[in-house]
Amino acid sequence: MTYDLAIIGGGPAGVAAGGITVVRKEPAKRKYTVSDSWGLTKFKSVVSRELQRAIRMERADDDGNCECVCCGRVQHYTDMDCGHFIDGKANAIRFDERGMFPCCVNCNQHLNGNKEAYGRFLLRHSGQEVIDDLLRLRNTQMKITRADLESMRRSIKARLKAQEKRLRGLE
C-alpha cells in the first residue's frame, strides 16, 4: 500500500499550521479471478467439469431429468455423469461435445462407459462420420492455451446460467 502526502491550505503556511494529511492511495484495480492461480491442468479439469454439467443440464427435461444414452435409465441430471465416447484426456477430444452425452453412474463408471451401447447410440444420433472423426482425433495432439480455456469457460458459464434459469429451483 502506498501513501501520498497532501498539503491542505496550500503552501508553507498550511504546513506550519499542521495542515498535512495522509491520503491512502489505492493500488490499480486488476480483475483477478480464482483461475489466475490455477495451473493449466487444474484449469482444464474445472472447464471440463463445467462443460459436462452444462451438457447434462441441456439434455434434461424441464423437471431436471435426463436419460442415460446407454441403458435408458432416467435420473435427475445431478445424479448422472457425462459419458464420453472415447476415454482419455486428449485435448482434441476432451472438449468435443459430439461425443459427450448424459450417462448413468452405473454405465459410465461400473460398466466402464458401456461402450457398445454408447457406440450404438452415437451411430443412431450422429452417424458414422462423427464416430470416425472422433476416432481420428483421439490420436491428434492439440495445444490448449489459458486464453482458449478462458474463452471456453465464459461461453460455458453463459450456457449454465441459461439452463439454471430454465431449471430454477431444481438444484
Q: What this model shows, in words?
A:
It is built from seven helices and six strands, in the order E-H-E-H-E-E-E-H-E-H-H-H-H. Strands 1-2 form a two-stranded antiparallel ribbon. The chain is an alpha+beta fold and 171 residues long. The longest helix is centred in the last third of the chain and has 21 residues, at 146-166. It has helices spanning 11-16, 40-59, 91-94, 105-110, 115-126, 128-137, 146-166; strands at 2-7, 20-25, 65-67, 74-76, 80-84, 100-104. Helices cover 46% and strands 16% of the residues.
Summed up:
The chain has 171 residues and is an alpha+beta fold. It contains 7 helices and 6 strands. The radius of gyration is 26 Å and the shape is globular.
Secondary-structure topology with pairs:
Blueprint: E1 2-7, H1 11-16, E2 20-25, H2 40-59, E3 65-67, E4 74-76, E5 80-84, H3 91-94, E6 100-104, H4 105-110, H5 115-126, H6 128-137, H7 146-166
Antiparallel strand pairs: 1-2, 3-4, 5-6
Helix pairs in contact: 2-7, 5-6
Order of helices and strands: EHEHEEEHEHHHH
Number of strands: 6
- What structural class do you assign from the helix and strand content? alpha+beta
Strand fraction equals 15-25%
Helical residues, percent: 40-55%
Biggest pleated sheet = 2 strands, antiparallel
Query: What is the gyration radius calculated from CA atoms?
Result: 26 Å
Query: What coarse outline follows from CA principal-axis ratios?
Result: globular
Count of helical segments? Answer: 7
Uncertain segments are: 1-10
Give, in spatial order, the strands making up the sheet with the most strands.
1-2
Average pLDDT works out at 84
